[in-house]
Amino acid sequence: MKRVECDAVFGSSIDKIWKVMTDNTNYSWRSDLSKIEVRDGGNHFIEYAKNGYPTEFVVTLKIPHERYEFDMENGNMSGHWTGIFTKVNGRVKITFIEEVEVKNPIMRFFVGIYLKKQQKKYIEDLKHALGE
Prior knowledge:
Blueprint: E1 2-10, H1 14-22, E2 33-39, E3 44-49, E4 54-63, E5 67-73, E6 77-88, E7 91-102, H2 111-130
Antiparallel strand pairs: 1-7, 2-3, 3-4, 4-5, 5-6, 6-7
């Protein structure tokens, strides 16, 4: 299993950040997605990349303003994502943790680079959506 972790600090309120990150009906701020299908009251959703490739997500833990977790799976990988929210000196720090098992042995060599790139893009998109 490959684990990638990174931190990002935001100036927006924790409430605003939480609302943007957990509202899967509003995904227009995500530059990597073409659509999201929300199911089961939001606890299950499918993200579609710009090329139409689907990834399924099931929310496993949702503690408002503290922690957001879900399992994810597609044809290439399965894993778990965690977002930990903490207040630091009047700002909000989010620790993003992604752990995946790659199904294709050749892709194992590249998954770390890919995950870091995805996390960086997500953080950039989130900061833009928050006006930061």
